[in-house]
Specification:
By secondary structure, the chain is of the alpha/beta class. Helices cover 21% and strands 36% of the residues. A 6-stranded mixed beta sheet has the order 5-4-3-6-7-8, with helices on both faces. A 4-stranded antiparallel beta sheet has the order 1-2-10-9.
Amino acid sequence: MGLIKLHDKHFKPFIKKDTIAKYVDYLAKTIANDLDEDETPIFIAILNGSFMFAADFIRKYPYNCHISFVKLASYKGTNTTGKIKQLVGINENLEGKTVIILEDIIDTGNTLKEIYEIFKDKKVKNLKIATLFFKPDVFRKELPIDYIGKSIEDKFIVGYGLDYDGLGRNLPDIYQLVEKK
């Protein structure tokens, strides 16, 4: 793990893949312990960023479950646009089901607010949020986050599904933006 360059920016090593795996394992075990063994939750991964997290999480989850995907977009470069676009929606009937959203990262909460809006009228039994990474210093919404893998400082990160203008998603480790001095 050394310094990498994506487009015009440099990133330094931040979290190794083995440590990420521990966060994923913790989330899968915690959620499994919170649900009835005979309950079949629907995990909904927010694309594109959470695809690696969702794949690893589902492999670790010990009971029956369903997985689906929704695609929302709010980033351009390293900044959030503040405008959420629902690009791919939900096709499943969620009425009476336990739905657990799998997010790669929650920062300002704008995407999370949109998620709550999308599921508000779906008549789900329970709606829970699980995020691999959480930036508490910039979170601005009064919305519950049920499961957090790791709280981190407000620095831009890439790797393990997270990208900078399309690059870096394939990196197995997490890298942090190097600030210019």
